[in-house]
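Input C-alpha cells:
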C-alpha cells in the first residue's frame, strides 16, 4: 500500500465467512467537512450485511494524520486534489474493485 498509513484509518466490516466477503460489492463511505469516519458507525452494521464497507478518514480529519501545512508547499496539502488522490489510491490498494 502506498501512503495509506499516512492518510487514513480503515474501518472495514466483514462477514464471518471470509470466502463470501468478495461476493459483496464494495461501498466506500466518505465523510464531509468537519466530520470523520465515526459518523458512519450506526450505519456500518446494516450496510455490512450486503456490502464490503469501508469508512475512511480524509487527510486532516478524524483519526488520520494532520500534517502541518507549513511543512509543505503553499496550497499543496489540504486540497480537493489531495483528497481525490487519497480516495483513488485507497480504492486501488485496498478495495480493489
Amino acid at each position: 500500500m502506498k501512503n495509506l498509513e499516512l492518510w487514513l484509518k480503515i474501518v472495514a466490516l466483514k462477514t464471518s465467512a471470509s470466502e463470501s466477503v468478495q461476493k459483496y460489492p464494495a461501498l466506500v463511505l466518505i465523510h464531509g467537512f468537519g466530520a470523520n469516519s465515526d459518523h458512519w458507525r450506526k450505519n456500518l452494521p446494516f450496510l455490512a450485511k450486503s456490502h464490503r464497507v469501508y469508512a475512511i478518514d480524509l487527510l486532516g480529519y478524524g483519526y488520520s494524520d494532520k500534517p502541518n501545512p507549513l511543512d509543505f508547499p503553499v496550497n499543496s496539502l489540504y486540497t480537493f486534489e489531495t483528497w481525490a488522490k487519497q480516495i483513488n489510491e485507497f480504492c486501488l490498494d485496498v478495495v480493489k474493485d
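The chain has one domain: 4-95. The helical segments are 4-7, 18-21, 44-47, 80-95.
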